[in-house]
Amino acid sequence: MKGFKRGLSLTLTIIMLLSSLSVNMTVNADEASEVIEEDVVIAETAVQREDDEIIDTELPEAPSTVTEKGMQFKIDNLQDVKSIRYAYGEYDTEKDIKYGADSVSHSAKNLRKRGDSCVLQFPKAGLVSIVVTYNDGTRDFYKYDVIKNSPTVTRDGGNSITFGNLSDLKVLRYVKGEYESSYDIKRANGSVAVSGKTLNSDTYTVALDRETYTFCVQYNDESYNYYVTGVCGDNLTWVYDMQTCTLTISGEGEMDEYYYKDIPWYDYKMSIKTATLESGITKISREAFYECSSLVNVTLPSTLEIIDYCAFECTALTSIVIPENVRIIKSSAFKKCENLESVILGNGVEEIYNSVFEKCLNLKNVVFGNNIKLIGWESFLDCTSLNDIDLPDSVVEIDAYAFSGTGYYNNQDNWENKLLYLEEFLIDTKSYLGTCIIRDGIKTIASCAFEYAFADYIYIPESVVHIVHGGLDVWNFGITSIYDDVVFMVVKGSYAEQYIIEHTEYSYRYYEPSDIYG
Question: What value, to the nearest 5°, has the Cα angle with vertex 146 and ends 198 and 172?
Fold first, then answer.
């Protein structure tokens, strides 16, 4: 009887195996090719379970279940788990996840499990691909968009700061001074901790002294957010968001004056990517963002009037729009911004001081406002990509070397008989001119236009109505004046004659326009 039962059992087992084999044989070759150990294609559904082999006739266990919560991803039903891998990005196979960006692997031994559950704690926001592998060879795949909880932050130039979106707050810590971690804040003297359990609303306001503070806002999903805040004017405050690398300045009036290392956010200057200056600010102080080498985006308020010396020198800006109320841009304000490609100047700008855009090597497009009068010394020096320059009629003066070394300057097709014109301006000359005849119709001779010219005679047309200071200075390489060797030919009664009479160091003679210009 026992032998019969064993024989019957063996017969049934063989029948079942043959049945299983016949079923498997109906799977087509394309479907079979998808069942490989390392390269598993994810199905359209969020979860796919694979069976490398079927043991006995028992049904496979149900797929693991998950709970998504901000920076955390909880996986249940892990009784027989072998490993869990995840990587940032969208991947379709276990192999791709293994070698993906910021890939992390947890074996069964080091998984932090509570019973048959595990919580993955992600370090940052972004799309992650996850694979759970079991000892029986089956796998579960997930894609999860990790979203970091962050508060809203409001500081308007006064003595308080308000945090919002705190409904899932775990704890808010803050202390005077600058710190880099929640642990450091917690251990610092005078540290304050506010538990989310004690809040009656999703906002919290802190009254501050006029000093620098560091805040850490921690949520229940272990999202950490760090902020440093302080004052930068009588009615101006600043907040630096360490997560987004954004500096926000709020309030009314002018920024305090600083000298490089005195800038309140100096310790973060290499990491600041975005600067937002809110409405009410009227002046950006000198060197406020000097050498903020990661600064790509800047938003300027309509209330802004003055951009001071070296304010944005050596930043990574790619474009800048100057608001309509800005009147003055002082020296070197955007000097050596080598990534800067586009500049739009508002109609309020009247003066561009010396070297404002000097050595902005990639600057291709400049839109001048309609009220600009002065373009300062070396304003666009060595802007080698600036090939086209369109000046408004309002421009009165172009100072020395304003456009030297630009793409326009370096293009030999723009030179005429060794003279370089820009619309109605004569802006530069080459050496050894001999007899020089300035084009009729030119109205202004720029500063130092004839420096190193070595000319015998220079004919100035009657159309010239303005000579910028030093416009007729001719030097022997800046060492010895050779005015006595140069004769300026002028029309009697012209502006040029009057200018030369007032500057007695020049020699001149009269000529008839019809003899030269026809």
Answer: 20
Beta strands at 351-352 and 374-375: parallel, antiparallel or unpaired: parallel
Cβ-in-10-Å burial (0-12, 13-18, 19+) of 111 comes to: middle
Residue 44 buriedness (CB in 10 A; 0-12 / 13-18 / 19+) = exposed
pLDDT number for residue 346: 95
Question: Residues in the chain with pLDDT < 70?
Answer: 1-64, 111-115, 475-484
**453 contacts 487 by C-beta, under 8 angstroms:** no
Report residue 68 CA to chain centroid gap: 32
pLDDT at 25: 34
User: 341 burial class (0-12, 13-18, 19+ CB within 10 angstroms)?
Assistant: middle
The pLDDT value given to residue 484: 52
Q: How many CB atoms lie within 10 A of CB 177?
A: 15
User: According to the model, what pLDDT value does residue 112 have?
Assistant: 58
pTM of model > 0.85: no
Which tokens go with 257?
């004056």
Q: What DSSP assignment string belongs to 346-414?
A: -TT--EE-TTTTTT-TT--EEE--TT--EE-TTTTTT-TT-------TT--EE-TTTTTTSHHHH-GGG
Count CB-CB contacts under 10 A for residue 97: 23
Q: Tokens 């800046």 label which residue?
A: 478
CB 136 within 8 A of CB 80: yes
How much is the pLDDT for 156? Answer: 79
φ, ψ at 222 (rounded to 5°): 70, 25
The DSSP code for 49 is B
Q: What is the CA radius of gyration of the chain?
A: 37
Burial class (CB in 10 A: 0-12, 13-18, 19+), 104: middle
Query: Quick one: pLDDT at residue 261?
Result: 84
Taking the chain, what is the end-to-end CA distance rounded to the nearest angstrom? 133
